[in-house]
Every structure is written in C-alpha cells, then in structure tokens.
Amino acid sequence: MQNQDYKSHVRVHPVYHYVLQILLLGTLITTIVFLIRSIKQEENILLSIILFLMMIIIVIIAVLLRFYPLKAQDRAIRAEENLRYYVLTGELLDPKLSFAQLAALRFASDKEFPELSKRAAAENLKPDEIKKAIHNWRADYNRI
To answer: Transmembrane segments in this chain: where (predicted)?
Structure first.
C-alpha cells in the first residue's frame, strides 16, 4: 500500500465514483429526454413518468447507500479520536471541534495530536490547515 500523506490521503472508489455515478447520471438524463419527448408527442406518457420516477428512486437509493455508512464511520471516527485524546491526555476533546476538524486531526501522530487539537479549537483551524500542520502523518487506510 502506498504511504499516505497530505497529497495522497483522499480515497476514491472507482466503481462508485466513476462508473456508477456516470451510469446514474446518463440514465437519469435519458429518462428526462424520454419524458419530454413523450409529452411532446403525446405517446407513452405513463411509461415515461414511471421510468422517470423509478430512476429518481434509484438515484436516492444510491445516495443513501453511500451516505448512511459514511455517517456511521463519522461516528466511529469521533469516538476513536475522543478515546485517543483521553488516553493521551486524560481529558476529553474540546466540544468546539467540528467533525471536519476531527477528521483532519485523525491523521496527526500521537505526539502531535493533543497540541494540534488544542490549537485547532483555539484558532478554529480549517481542516485543510490542520492537515498541512501535521508533520508526522498517521495513515487511515480504512476510510473510503
């Protein structure tokens, strides 16, 4: 596996991000064109409406299938980083930290994590600023 750093930490799942999304978009556009043509020609209107609604349902399902597991991962990351901070400092993380800040902080090594967490909360650092401030990158290969 490639070592992660600021430039290579973004994860992409090619089948989802490229194949499925392009197919969904293409099919949605095709059903919209079919619906418009059916209405103009006054033929197959019911069929085109049903196909369009089915495509909307499929798009919603695809979005939710991506969204729900990511929310579960977000909760796990929040709990893991709070536990990690507690183990390292004996205190809980500052509640002012947003999830986006916590997600960025998870890449900090144990040595950098407590101080960078305090700095992120005090200075309200943006996630990108937090990632750029990390000197010793702690890889996360499990998140997609």
So the answer is: 15-39, 45-68
Q: How far apart are CA 26 and CA 69, in angstroms?
A: 25
60/17 Cα distance (integer angstroms):
15
Rounded Cα distance between 18 and 47, Å, is 29
Helix and strand totals (H; E) in the chain: 6, 0
Contact 4, 137 (CB under 8 A): yes
CB 33 within 8 A of CB 53: no
Euclidean distance between CA atoms 73 and 24, whole angstroms:
25
pTM to 2 decimals?
0.69
- Distance, in Å, from the CA atom of 65 to the CA atom of 128, rounded to the nearest integer, reads 27
DSSP string of 114-133, one letter each residue: HHHHHHHHHHT--HHHHHHH
